[in-house]
Design a protein that fits this description.
Largest sheet: 7 strands, mixed
CATH topology: Rossmann fold
Shape: globular
CATH class: Alpha Beta
Low-confidence stretches: none
Distance between the termini: 15 Å
Amino acid sequence: MSTPAPGTIEEEWGVPIPGVILPPERWTQTALKRMPAEGRLDWSSLFGRVAPVVLDLGCGNGRFLLGSALSRPDHDHLGIDTLPVVIRYARRRGNQRGLTNLKFAVGGATELLRDYVPPGSVAEIHCYHPQPYVDPKSAHRRLISPAFLALVHRSLKPGGLFVIQTDHPDYWNYMRRVVPIFFDFRIQPGPWPDAPEGRTRREILARQRGLKVYRGYGWSRVDLNVDEAISAAERQPMPFFRRDRRHRDIDRLERE
């Protein structure tokens, strides 16, 4: 993999990637190579300061977090994804932009929240285009579930922000039923103002191929009885997917 010259603005699918390549002497290290052997993450030790923490679950190649870390230097950021190859791209770009408020790790979103994130310690959690697993035999692998949303709620500070996005209308219909049980939910009617062409690689690809992108956000409900919320969410019908060829084409491009 060749290294662009300092000052280079990289593009992906015709859309600039946030930030520019810095001279090598200004590069940093954004790899979180391993989770604690015991206990939970200590954010102040990880980032060397006390600051609001932003998580991106299923961060892909890091496009959203790069932009957020650059525009919000007063926030610390952690992205996680199960695919090592995309994390390698994310780390390289974070390193080359000299970002000290950004870390990337390989791993699962549920495991991160369940085992390593201290309850009530995170300001924002973002989840862009979670894999829907349209085959009913793989439904148990879907990330958005009542138990997962309960973990998100537990991880956030009271009133913390949860952001979610998908290009699957049937998955979105399910999200619109279950997410408001845990969060004071709002629909974002159009592109995010900070990234009008797309916050993520998947969003850019979907829009270029004519797919509608569904976006929403909400603040964790402070009046929530978690057990009652999980029970109410579990009573909602699971999504049934009507998937068209454009989704299959984008899935293939993302794997390449």
